[in-house]
Amino acid sequence: MSLFSRVREDIQAARAGDPAARGAAEIFFVYSGLHAVWWHRVSHALWARGMRFLPRALSQLTRFFTGIEIHPGATIGRRLFIDHGMGVVIGETAVVGDDVLIYHGVTLGGTGHDGGKRHPTIGDRVVIGAGAKLLGNIELGHDCAVGSNAVVVHSAPPWTTLTGIPAQGRPRRGAPAEMPDAADFYMI
């Protein structure tokens, strides 16, 4: 996929995720969430080539200008939209799926100084509300929704809504009928 196709795809995702979006030019020039994602792609490509200082410096410069910190080692899927992104932090071993929507103040963080995989893995089409904290090597299945200010420290299956501190899961409305019964998983 060409660079221009990816940019066009990101702009369309922003239009779909933000009802206040007025046009492609406005999104291209003033949406800091997209700028952070675009610069992350550059720093991630350098990181993948074994560079360490330059990608980290680029991610910190991007953080200075956007208020969004994405570690160059994080794996980000297609069409990630970070709306009102100030204060978003995405850790080094985080994995974010396609078509994810993240609001301001979200942390995809670790819980200690352990090596290896220590940040969350987020499935496709997940919505993460403002101020939510997802901590540790956990997995959120596809189509989950995380409520604002929730603190998520346990994995959740697809089509789960997570709210509270610590977050409790319940089936998300609109789940397909063929979804297996996960009643034993939910702590409600």
TrEMBL record:
Pathway the protein contributes to: Amino-acid biosynthesis; L-cysteine biosynthesis; L-cysteine from L-serine: step 1/2
Matching InterPro entries: Hexapep, LbH_SAT, Ser_AcTrfase_N_sf, Ser_O-AcTrfase, Serine_acetyltransferase, Trimer_LpxA-like_sf
Reactions catalysed, as given in the entry: L-serine + acetyl-CoA = O-acetyl-L-serine + CoA
Broad enzyme group: transferase
GO MF term (any one): serine O-acetyltransferase activity
EC number: 2.3.1.30
Record-level GO BP terms: cysteine biosynthetic process from serine
Record keyword Amino-acid biosynthesis present: yes
Keywords: Acyltransferase, Amino-acid biosynthesis, Cysteine biosynthesis, Cytoplasm, Repeat, Transferase
Keyword Ubl conjugation belongs to the record: no
Primary subcellular site in the record, as a coarse category: cytoplasm
GO cellular-component term (any): cytoplasm
Places the protein is found: Cytoplasm
Family: Belongs to the transferase hexapeptide repeat family.
PANTHER family in the record: SERINE ACETYLTRANSFERASE
Protein name, as recorded: Serine acetyltransferase
